[in-house]
Design goal:
4-stranded antiparallel sheet; 11 helices; alpha/beta; 5-stranded parallel sheet; binds glycine; 15 strands; single chain
């Protein structure tokens, strides 16, 4: 089997390396790739968010499978273009990728699928923002509705800072603060069957003692033992399986990896957010552990 990995990061390096070690895989290509990937795979230039460009490259190389690493091409519909070109693709459609692409869409799916999460309010005007901040109280959780590479969320007890962030975004989700240890669970699905991988945790805040702002993640480890087998079973049953079933029922089947960011609160696991791709750097530890 010939495989093409799309992306440029450490996550894509981990995916390409894991694929190269699979006895069924005869050739690994990456585009655009990076110098680390070039050590064991062939690199090709591509505009990764241009579906026609990626599909043309896949056909030219004669690959059997395209694996899309980052969220931007998925949200842009690159998986749809690749499938339309007759090539199998690991990664959700543009529609299904809205689970990450729009926080408001994700919250609506959670509500309709009965998935436990923080109660949200979607705001577009300064008046709505003020009202929502007063309704929930401190600590404030303010999220840019659009893709922000893991940096769109401000959690703060400083009302002015919360207001500032909200007013810098076109549309925000303001929600209840959830307390507890945070953990991520990654599940692979073809749209119907869902298989969990191992839980992982990343290090989000910059500076010692977590004193800095949230980053996209600066390190990760797995297993994350805070997610016990009992809790993992609950997360699959209460969060991930109902979401995949809901997406299938609404005719936007979710295919690829579904990344659930979870807070283990006193009243049970709650979903913070979905991502439509592997975490970076969680993918690096997961691929190392995957047989
Ligand atoms: P997100 O981009 O939605 O994963 O948010 C980034 C980080 O903000 C999360 O990993 C949490 O640490 C924190 N966060 C997000 N939502 C909440 C919430 N409702 N309560 C507490 N912390 C949150
Ligand atoms: N490390 C968190 C993320 O990839 O979103």
């Amino acid at each position: 089997m010939k495989v093409l990995v799309i992306g440029t990061g450490g996550r894509e390096h981990a995916l390409a390396l894991a694929l190269s070690r699979d006895p069924q895989v005869t050739e690994v290509h990456a585009a655009p790739g990076n110098p680390g990937i070039a050590a064991f795979a062939l690199l090709h230039p591509v505009n990764a968010t241009d579906g026609a460009d990626v599909a043309a490259l896949a056909n030219r190389l004669g690959v059997d499978l395209v694996v899309i690493g980052p969220e931007a091409p998925l949200v842009a519909g690159v998986a749809d273009a690749v499938r339309q070109a007759g090539v199998a693709c690991f990664g959700p459609s543009a529609q299904a990728a809205q689970l990450e692409g729009s926080k408001a869409f994700a919250k609506q799916v959670m509500a309709e699928a009965g998935v436990p999460t923080a109660e949200p309010r979607v705001c577009t005007t300064p008046e709505e923002v003020e009202a929502a901040l007063d309704f929930f109280g401190a600590p404030y959780v303010v999220k840019d509705d659009a893709l922000a590479a893991g940096k769109g969320v401000v959690v703060t007890s400083d009302r002015a800072e919360a207001l500032d962030h909200a007013n810098s975004c076109e549309r925000v989700v303001i929600e209840a603060f959830l307390d507890g240890p945070e953990v991520s669970l990654f599940a692979i699905t073809d749209g119907v069957t869902v298989v969990p991988l191992q839980p992982a945790q990343d290090f989000k805040r910059a500076l010692d003692n977590d004193a800095g702002p949230n980053t996209g993640g600066m390190g990760a480890y797995s297993p994350a033992r805070v997610l016990t087998p009992e809790l993992e079973a609950r997360v699959m049953k209460e969060i991930i399986e109902p979401t995949v079933a809901y997406m299938a029922q609404k005719e936007m089947p979710y295919q690829g990896v579904l990344f659930a960011g979870l807070m283990l609160t006193e009243t049970g696991p709650k979903l913070i957010e979905y991502n439509c791709r592997f975490g970076d750097p969680e993918c690096q530890v997961l691929m190392t552990r995957l047989d």
